[in-house]
Structures
1.
Amino acid sequence: MKIIENWSGTLIEFIPVLLVIAVVTAIARLAHWLVRYKQGKNHESDPFPRQFITLFAVIIAIISVVLVMPVDVSVRNQLLTLLGLVLTVVIAFSSTTFAANILAGFTLRATRRLRPGNFISHGDDLGRITEIGLIQTEIQTRHRNFTYLPNTSLLSEKVMVINPEATIVSAEVSLGYDVHHGVVEKYLLGAAERCGLEDPHVRVRELGDFSITYRIAGLLREVKLLITTGSDLRKAMLDCLHEAGIEIVSPAFMNQRPLPPEQVFIPQTPASGDKSSPVSATDAPENVIFDKADEAERIENLKDHREQLLNRLKELEAGLGKLEGYQKTSAEQEIEASNARIKGLDAILNNKEE
């Protein structure tokens, strides 16, 4: 009987601890809900607010539990001192990693230099951002795999962000000195036009000992097709040069392996139905390679559109009292349409969250 009384007494003493844990958990859940309600976005594609709230809630919960534990004041003070030392040591040893990555994450989000869906090149890797987290950023590579970069590396190291509006696609080819550069330029420009590149131009990159290196480049508007268009451009270069009777082989090849003068290195032209053509946007492999990045970009764009609608709605409601007649009716109709559109966006984003 005494054992039961002792256990019940101990449980009663720890009720404040359980209450603190429950209250902190409830507040954290409420904060998550408020962030989702305000932003109307998918936290799986943007985990930054959720991660920050969770980290803050854990720290508050630990401190609160120590303060309400049923122990002597001296023991409580010792626990608080120990907790302070632990936090100091953790911060000291992780200041160049953990804390620095958190600060870098805040900087990336404040400057908005990177967004989900952006193509970036870091070192030898080319991929698209899927999410920017509290400590690291997730990138979906051209092989459909995922790589994780610390946020500090995106600030301190060289990172190339592909312009989402338009970018330059280029390819190089080496040809012999027996082909005039004006002829080469004509057919390389034709190859770029076949791929739908705008404002194509040809540059001579290098005058080598045995060959000339040419670069053809053009403006690509549909940046999501960056990889496919690069491949299509090289195919078109082969087709255009071979159709013109230009061999893609340098004199060094002839010096290494002598062949009869009539021997050429141009494959037979296939039947008209077998010729390669640029891949359409709907059939492009990028749709499979960067599926998560596409979804993250779509959610980000929906969020931006919702924010624009909210700002426009505030402007209309603020100036509604000054309008009369047709202008007031038109403004009321636009307010109604904006509210309907915002509700539709909320429904889409909430479905993604679920």
Note: Residues 290-353 form one domain.
2.
Amino acid sequence: MKTNLLAVFLLLFHFSSFGAVILQYHHVSGTTPKSTSITPEQFAVHLKYLQENSFNVVPLSQIVDNIKNQQPLKNKTVAITFDDAYIDVLTNAKPILDEYNFPYTIYVNPGIINRNEGALIKGMNSHYLSWAQLKALGDEGVIIANHGFEHDSLTRITDNLSQQQWLEQQTTLLLKAEAIIKEKTGQSWYYFAYPYGEFSPEIQHWVKENNFIGFSQQSGAVGLYTDLTSVPRFPASMPYDKISGLRDKLNSLPFNIKLQGEQAKTIFEFKQTKSITFNIETEDFYKSGLNCYISGLGKQKIIWQGESSFTINFSSDLPIGRVRCNCTAASISKPGRYYWYSKPWFVLKTGGEWYHL
């Protein structure tokens, strides 16, 4: 009996040490802004690579359910997501996805889709999917999820509103968006992708209180210990669309890293923060092989604080704008694969003014 229990434990440990990767796309087109686009030809290269290398491409809901129920994630699991519901997802991406029979998720802004309907009635061209098109895709198995009523950052509080008033207003809009999605498509997953990837600990708490799962835009693999208020996704559009770079991301493993108190904050004014300390609960790597890079600053010096935490004293002030600290380390037990974690900051101008989107 003890032998059987040990075997079960080892099996669960083996699978729980794996994770999943969620890919984030916007446009699939060669004529849209490069920063949010991948060409149809390169998108086809991505999907071919997934198939030829035996990746387990699943609906996003399967990954979320596994985390919720603490059920082991199968090795090399991947989910595909699209933000903003652009028409080229239907015209350019869908034929390629259908060829491989891969499931996917589309995050929509009902306010934008509603205005799009008005444009269609007037015979104008539209860059967005219609509700009828979204319903048809949903009926085929595509997950239709919430990207906010409008594409407004939740962190940028309107003047003269307290944070409590702002969140009450946003609660109404988020639930309104979810209700419209359910009315138009029959789906209500309570999945919410943060517009522009911007969030804060207060927003995370608010998302949890409203029973949503929050999806962000910082890189990193997903594991059983992933915080369901900031589920990471790997941006896969240009300039991150080359297979040479995507390969390591697709094979990445989830770092079990925790941030507490001040360390969990994401919004700072320029020059307001100078360091960060990570608490790490993963042991399957050599400390000497841990590397952390901050966008705009490059590789950072790591100072270990005992066995399970390390500090980075920034080599310079974090630049204004969206900033990431990516930490990776080679796995000891899985040669050729890397643990990957990303910490986002949203650095304001001096005086608290937001940077331009």
Note: The chain is about 30% helix and 25% strand.
3.
Amino acid sequence: MQAEMTTEEKSKDAFFERIAKLSEEMVAIHGKEFSMGALVLGARWIAEGRADTDRKVN
């Protein structure tokens, strides 16, 4: 029996779903290489501390 997901787990799951959808769209329009590169650059940007948490999300 599986326990109910926490609010944090639900939030993370929703983000994974959004990332998956965005990835599929990027691959369909620009191909795998572009899509992987964009996601890696995004990860690098976060790792370098350049993600501005004060910015409002649309």
Note: Helices lie at 7-30, 32-47.
